[in-house]
Specification:
Helix content: 40-55%
CATH class of one domain: Alpha Beta
Number of strands: 10
Oligomer: single chain
Largest sheet: 4 strands, antiparallel
Radius of gyration: 23 Å
Structural class: alpha+beta
CATH topology of one domain: Alpha-Beta Plaits
Number of helices: 17
Distance between the termini: 48 Å
Order of helices and strands: EHHHHHEHEHHEHHHEEEHEEHHEHHH
Strand order of the largest sheet: 1-2-4-3
């Protein structure tokens, strides 16, 4: 492919991180929409559109012209955009950029930074596309035996993924004879992804204002000493977004407070309760909820507040007061939950000690040959994931242990559920084509908040047009 054709429209034709330039935002956003359903990246899709003569984009490089202008070279933009003292000025400028071939663990961290509510994401979907390998954390280079065990584990995950697809096809087709072959195959891929680890590669496209991007970069850079993938990718984001926002991004760095908060985040906060295996997700609101134990002040990820200054962005947990809900769900479901940014989440480090959530299709097929095979595979790999996680921790690598957590591993998610967020969540996630597990969570939340729904005349959380 002749990527030279794209040189005026992306900041790099080779790096796995690149910003979009000289492309109308509407066009970029439309091509971004293909990211979740296509194995191709943004560059490839844009290239196809240009090659097919569907786009008439400018040949002129407006970014370069701006960099040569007196406003930028003379410091006018820096003075009023950075030095003036009002960070809100940065909110009037935005950038669109892409990140390819990073881990699902990284995309989760990116989607849950403090400024995530002001960023928009479109991510490669494992519900519709087959995975493309895993990221191996560089921290393992100094532990060759553990690295070998990790790579063997990742390879086995993909072997089982391939074997699970036909097993799920068999049980789903038997139960849903009215479904087309393509619909059955989609559900099979959706369920087989349970055996994939958080190290599985993903692509993500992002749009955000300069303030939100700067804050996200700062928070990711604060992972220094804990996760090289996060820091190196943050540096690339900084480099490429500076290309298109040269006056507003370049002075971004991790602060002492952010570093203290991230250090606090990596402290293991799990309860020892064996290795529970659940037959589905569940929602709790009682004070003794397994998920809500994080609500105790000693367990909150706050870092050292004495390091805060007037420019410190408050962590998400400071906004998470009110009616608290605890959801225990799988990692795969958790990844969908966190996209509902109207909620205020308390994100915790993934940990295999929370157990696992068996997928509905497998649970309902227990007693059948294929169903029992699926359960055996999932349980054995879940336990191997837990063993490897503990080996990472024993070697002082707890900060990269999440790479071995599987999509089926349980995740506890405490959050503040507000009416606005619930209405959007329940309407979207109870829809017929939503994934089984998150649909179950939506139904349970609707039940939990039934009294609040009834207290508002004519109000319904679930607002499907066909109801």
């Amino acid at each position: 492919m002749n990527y030279q054709l794209l040189s005026n429209y992306v900041t790099s034709t080779e790096d796995n991180v690149y910003a979009i330039k000289n492309v109308p935002s509407e066009v970029a956003g439309t091509v971004f929409a293909k990211v979740s359903r296509s194995p191709k990246g943004f560059r490839d899709n844009l290239y196809d559109l240009i090659k097919e003569d569907m786009l008439q984009l400018p040949d002129i490089d407006m970014i370069s012209m701006f960099k040569n202008s007196t406003a930028h070279a003379g410091g006018f933009m820096k003075k009023w955009g950075v030095d003036y003292g009002h960070s809100s000025i940065k909110e009037h400028a935005f950038a669109q950029f892409c990140i390819e071939g990073v881990s699902r663990w990284f995309t989760e961290a990116l989607e849950t930074v403090q400024s995530a509510k002001w960023l928009s994401f479109t991510e490669f979907s494992l519900r519709y596309q087959k995975p493309e390998g895993v990221v191996t954390p560089k921290e393992l280079d100094e532990h060759p035996e553990l690295k070998e065990a990790y790579e063997a584990f990742a390879k086995q995950c993909f072997v089982y993924y391939e074997s699970l697809v036909p097993l799920f096809v068999s049980i789903i087709k038997e139960k849903n004879k009215e479904l087309s072959d393509s619909a059955v195959e989609k559900l099979a891929y959706e369920n087989a992804r349970n055996v994939l680890p958080l190290s599985t590669k993903a692509n993500v496209a992002i749009t955000g204002n300069a303030r939100a991007i700067s804050d996200a970069i700062s928070e990711l850079l604060a992972h220094e000493g804990f996760n090289q993938e996060f820091v190196e990718t943050a540096e690339k984001i900084k480099k490429h977004t500076t290309e298109v926002l040269p006056s507003l991004i370049s002075h971004t760095e991790a602060t002492a407070y952010l570093k203290s908060m991230i250090a606090n985040f990596y402290e293991r906060k799990t309860q020892e309760n064996g290795y529970p295996i659940y037959n589905g997700p569940f929602v709790e609101r009682e004070e003794d909820s397994l998920a809500l134990f994080f609500d105790k002040s000693k367990d909150l990820t706050l870092g050292d507040p004495s390091l805060m200054n007037r420019f410190s962005e408050l962590p998400e947990v400071m906004r998470a007061y009110g009616k608290k809900i605890g959801v225990t769900c799988s990692e795969a479901c958790h990844h969908q939950m966190i996209r509902h940014r109207a909620f205020d989440f308390q994100i915790q480090l993934p940990d295999t000690n929370y157990g696992m959530i068996l997928p509905k299709e497998a649970v309902e097929a227990i007693g059948q040959k294929e169903g029992d095979q699926i359960i055996d595979i999932l349980v054995s790999m879940g336990k191997r994931s837990q063993e490897l996680y503990e080996e990472f921790v024993a070697k002082g690598l707890g900060s990269v242990a999440p790479y071995v957590v599987l999509n089926l591993n349980a995740r506890r998610l405490p959050f503040y559920a507000n009416m606005y967020g619930l209405s959007h969540f329940i309407t979207l996630r109870k829809e017929e084509y939503a994934q089984d597990e998150i649909r179950s969570v939506a139904s349970q939340l609707e039940d939990v908040f039934q009294d609040m729904e009834n207290s508002l005349t004519h109000f319904k959380f679930d607002r499907h047009l066909d109801k």
